[in-house]
Amino acid sequence: MSTKVIYFLVDDRPEQAEFRSDFPADDIKDCFRAAAEAGPHDILKLYNTKGNIVNISQKLDENTPDTPYKLEVVASQFTGTLAEQLGFDIQDVENRLETLEKKIVVDSGETPTVVYELKHKVEHFKEKLESVEHLSWMGLFKEVVAESQSRLPFYKQRLRKTEEEQRRVWEKFNKIKNVQLTDDVREYLRKPTFDNWQWEDAEMMVLLQQMYIDLDFTTKFNIEMPVLQNFLFEVFRHYNHVPFHNFKHCFCVSQMMYGMNWLADLCHLVGELEVLIMVTSAICHDLDHPGYNNAYQVNARTELALRYNDISPLENHHCSVAFQILEKPHCNIFKNMGHERYKRVREGMISCILATDMAKHNEILNKFKAVVPEFDYSNKEHLNLLMQICIKVADISNEARPMDVSDPWIDCLLQEFFNQSDVEKLEGLPVAPFMDREKVTKPSSQTGFIRFVLLPLFEALGVLLPKLEEHIIEPVRKALNYYSEMAKAMEEEKRKKSENDKTTRQANGETPKINATNGTPTPASKLNGDTPSAGLSNATDKKVVRTNLTMSKVGGSSKVRGNPK
């Protein structure tokens, strides 16, 4: 086996690592962790010379001493050493606390025994409740009432995360949930260029937690940190194993909403409560998404379609699951709010999540455009429209990111589309052309979607919030140019191939025969009994693009979405 030598810097100190290409990834990470003198629960990230995060694994590209990688500890566990750096002695604090406790006992008298007994009973009762409600997924307790037999087809039974997967992520999250993120990472988290692909599930939960901290929501809305952590983990558990509408998509939408807040100063414009509503809605907006859109739900007459009378079955379901999670006391991040404020939060989240149904796209966009010229931030109707537009922009914002971040998301969405269309063909249900693997192409779907759906939405928001122009809207225009050029290149390649095939047939003495019925030439492939090519004609391409205008959302959060369970 070949040996790799990797050169990198740790705090501007040159280091090098040497390992065989067949070494396990965990051993390689431990090597870098040792070089950085990092703790077992610290989070490391490796950057290339362009400043991009690269994965620490056997596939790491070799480099030279002149082009070293940069290794950073982006989050550190809170330790005694860190306490010293912050200027206080933990032991001294403990001693002072013990002295204070003794003074209270002396001054006030011993605590009555009955108080300790009551406290013990309450703690015991609380443990029993949490064991049943919160830890049943670990297999330690059985539900009192068994779930009814699922009516879903067998191919949708594998969506749920296994207990082992959940346990593994929960254990890692528990180890790193109190790490201190560096200022560089916190600043990077506010940018639309953030790369989600380099972060694991537990790490993304830490980043979501940091959003609430840096927006000061934990203080201003009295959100208890353990409750926030339980909430984020429950949200993670309720996102399924589907190609696109998964927990990573949830994080991307939430991170873009968070970034838009810092770019446009939304807390100042619309208020901190409204930003809390939008960020939390983004986190919850696709909960329990099954990878099959609303059209499938309705056509297949699924349980969700029946429950919600064919009206936005997926979005209604996402919203319902969100509030089922929030109904659990250990997950209710709003439990310390007053009644009126909570009422506003619930109303706002329902409005935002239901707005992600692309069937309502034109209706919402036209209403927003109508009020922009005389927009009034004190007008509740205007404010609700802005919040709906913001979450819609965040939901389909992948094209605002760098190409190496956004392009893989298109493949994920197309895979989800293709999975659904394959099932629809098996079940004899209608198949949308933009989801048919035999008809759709990436550039054709992207150019139509960006030009007629995404860009008009982004530009409408840009009129009201011009600070978004450079960082979000202009990158979308560049993405449109990129996919337009790709579409032209594919058409040119198709044309040349057709001409070459024609030349080859003529050289072989094959001539098209005239169809007796309409006088049109019959292709040689038909004469030879071959299957016609699966490539699209120009007319078909136009039809696909036109269909995408109203239903597809390639490269963003597809809410043509439908996809329930």
Feature tags:
single chain, 565 residues, alpha+beta, 6-stranded mixed β-sheet, two-stranded antiparallel ribbon, disordered C terminus
Helical residues, percent? 55-70%
Based on helices, strands and strand pairing, what is the structural class? Answer: alpha+beta
Any idea what the shape is? Answer: globular
Distance between the termini: 46 Å
Mean model confidence by pLDDT: 83
Uncertain regions spanning at least 5 consecutive residues: 130-155, 516-565
Question: Can you count the helices?
Answer: 23
Sheet with the most strands, sense and barrel status: 6 strands, mixed
Total strands: 8
Q: Rg, please? A: 28 Å
Strand content bin: 5-15%
GO molecular function: 3',5'-cyclic-GMP phosphodiesterase activity; metal ion binding
Biased composition (Polar residues): 505-539
EC number: 3.1.4.-
Region (Disordered): 491-565
Set out the fold topology:
Elements: E1 3-10, E2 13-20, H1 25-35, E3 43-47, E4 53-54, E5 69-76, H2 80-86, H3 90-108, H4 113-133, H5 163-176, E6 180-181, H6 183-188, H7 201-214, H8 217-220, H9 225-237, H10 247-264, H11 266-270, H12 272-284, H13 294-299, H14 303-307, H15 313-326, H16 339-354, H17 361-371, H18 380-395, H19 403-427, H20 442-464, H21 468-507, E7 513-514, E8 521-522, H22 524-527, H23 538-551
Parallel strand pairs: 1-5
Antiparallel strand pairs: 1-2, 3-4, 3-5, 5-6, 7-8
